[in-house]
Amino acid sequence: MTKMLVAEDLSAVGGISLSAALPVLTAMRYQVAALPTSLLSTHTSGYGRPAIQDLSTWLPAVFDHWMAAKLDFDQALIGYVGSVELVDLLHKYLMAQQVALTVVDPVLGDLGELYSGFDGDYVMAMRRLIQTADVILPNVTEASLLTGLPYAADPDLAVLLPALQKLVKPGAHAIITDVTRDDLIGCAWLADGQVQYSGQPRLPGHYNGTGDTLAAVIAGLLGQGYSLAQAVPLANQWLNAAVAETLAENRDDERQGVALGNLLRAILALQAS
Ligand code: ATP
Ligand code: MG
To answer: Could you give the number of structural domains in the chain?
Structure first.
């Protein structure tokens, strides 16, 4: 079994980030090391101010123990980290490891704004971390923050993607994740210098956890040997199915992350084929 380190926040209530990545990657037959980068009572969207446990003294001890126990990982998926100190700690840990495929979702902001609590130093730390990545998955806002290019909801991808590529190591891929084209939402990346796009119809509403789930799906498929051109359209299709299932549930609480039943069934069907 392939061992994957997944490092991101664990929000007890809300069904996003680590809570969503675990079932997705388990269904893909990964052996997951689930490393919370911080503990929250709920995610940060709609529940008021969550109780947050800072893990910055625990995480260095975790890495020390893993080194002493000679534990290592074939793959890594890094999501929300939370502080410059922890971003640098993860950077240092990843640099010392032989990880065959590192996927970084450089969580910094959305809708043109940095998430609260983040500043320019945090963006700089994220720029250092993405140098360890084989694939980065910024949304449009994060792509603008990382490159320093002005934010536009509908950016010129032929400018933004090459600027992102300059921030990652040779051979690594930058995929922008919430790209709108007509009535589609999907992802854009470069292949042989040309902008590629894969999208699915944008369904009504805004959903929590779609970005985290998309990152887990893409990391999982790439690790199984699917190419970007195969993995990204499949991931968009599955996320569309997750949003469609969520809509069909007519939920009375829209804060919970997207429904994963259809997505997990699609994963298991693919694994069985
Ligand atoms: P986040 O906002 O969670 O940090 P993100 O900004 O990177 O993540 P999202 O906007 O959540 O990305 O979108 C991630 C993916 O989820 C999209 O590329 C798309 O495949 C799917 N998705 C998100 N919202 C919708 C929607 N309303 N309808 C259909 N698919 C969606
Ligand atoms: Mg978004």
So the answer is: 1
The range of the structural domain enclosing residue 165 comes to 3-272
Among 115, 126, 239, 244, CA closest to 174: 126
User: For a substitution probing ligand 1, which of 177, 183, 221, 260 has the most ligand atoms within 8 Å of its CB?
Assistant: 177
Rounded distance from Cα 8 to ligand 1 centre (Å):
18
3 C-beta neighbours (distance < 10 Å), count? 15
Q: pLDDT (tens digit, 9 = 90+) per residue, 152-208?
A: 999 999 999 999 999 999 999 999 999 999 999 999 999 999 999 999 999 999 999
What is the position in ligand 1's atom list of the atom closest to the CA of 212? 3
Contact 218, 137 (CB under 8 A): yes
Ligand nearest to the CA of 185: 1
| Ligand in closest contact with the CA of 240 | 1
Cα(59)–Cα(55) distance, integer angstroms: 6
Q: What is the CATH number of the domain that holds 20?
A: 3.40.1190.20
Give 178 Cα–ligand 1 centroid separation in angstroms: 5
Q: How far is the CA of 111 from the centre of ligand 2 (A)?
A: 7
pLDDT tens-digit profile of 99-158?
Answer: 999 999 999 999 999 998 999 999 999 999 999 999 999 999 999 999 999 999 999 999
Q: What residues sit around ligand 2, an ion, with C-beta below 5 angstroms?
A: 110, 139, 178
